[in-house]
Design a protein that fits this description.
Layout (H helix, E strand, L loop, with lengths): L4 E2 L1 E9 L2 E3 L2 E3 L2 E9 L2 E2 H4 L7 E2 L10 H8 L12 E7 L9 E8 L3 E10 L6 E2 L7 E4 H7 L3 H6 L5 H5 L17
Parallel strand pairs: 1-12
Antiparallel strand pairs: 2-5, 3-4, 5-6, 7-8, 8-9, 9-10, 10-11, 10-12
Length: 183
C-alpha cells in the first residue's frame, strides 16, 4: 500500500462465535462497519491475529457508536489509551482493552489525517508493533470525514439479536408462558 493518500471506506461485515449459556449454545453475530483501506480490510492487512476482531462501529454497542466515531475523527480522546491514540480493532465480545486492541496514533491536520505507529495493546504488556501495515497511512481529511457521515445510521440499521448477545434473563414462573388450569 503506498504512503500517498490512502482511501478509507466503511463496509458491512459480520463476526460470529459460539457462546455457551448454561446448557444452551448461543450464536451471537456482531454486525459492524469494517475499515477498508485502499480496498482491503484492515483486519486482513494485519493477518490472522485480527481475524476475530471488529471495529467499535458495532451494532451490539449502538449507544457508544457516536463516541467511537468521534474518537476516530479525533474529536474525543480514548479513555484507556495514551493521548492521541485510537483503537481501530477491538475484541468482538466486549471490546475492552484487556482482550487486546489494534491501535494507531491519529493525527488530524488541516488537509490530511494520518494513522501511524500501529501497535497491539492490551493494558497489561508493553505495546507491541504491528506487522503488515505501512507507516504512516495518510488520508485526505475531507474524504476521511465523509466516510463517517452516515456511519451511525448504517450501524443502527444492522440486524441485532439481543438474546443471543446477552443470554437468558431470569423469568418468574408466571412468565414461563404456561397457565394454571381453571377449576
Amino acid at each position: 500500500m503506498p504512503n500517498a493518500d490512502a482511501t478509507l471506506r466503511l463496509d458491512h461485515a459480520v463476526e460470529s462465535w459460539v457462546f455457551e449459556d448454561g446448557n444452551i449454545d448461543r450464536y451471537p453475530e456482531a454486525h459492524f462497519l469494517d475499515l477498508i483501506v485502499g480496498g482491503v480490510s484492515i483486519r486482513s492487512l494485519v493477518g490472522p491475529t485480527a481475524s476475530d476482531m471488529v471495529t467499535e462501529l458495532n451494532r451490539p454497542w449502538l449507544p457508544d457508536v457516536n463516541n467511537a466515531i468521534d474518537r476516530l475523527l479525533g474529536r474525543l480522546p480514548s479513555e484507556d489509551l495514551a493521548p492521541g491514540r485510537v483503537a481501530l480493532l477491538v475484541c468482538a465480545i466486549e471490546g475492552d482493552l484487556g482482550c487486546g486492541q489494534l491501535t494507531t496514533r491519529l493525527d488530524v491536520g488541516v488537509e490530511k489525517i494520518s494513522w501511524s505507529k500501529f501497535q497491539w495493546e492490551d493494558g497489561i504488556w508493553d505495546p507491541r508493533p504491528v506487522d503488515g501495515l505501512e507507516d504512516p497511512l495518510l488520508f485526505d481529511r475531507i474524504e476521511y470525514e465523509r466516510a463517517f457521515i452516515d456511519a451511525y445510521e448504517r450501524v443502527a440499521a444492522f440486524g441485532y439479536d439481543e438474546l443471543a448477545h446477552h443470554g437468558r434473563r431470569f423469568l418468574w414462573p408466571w412468565q414461563w408462558g404456561w397457565k394454571l388450569p381453571r377449576e
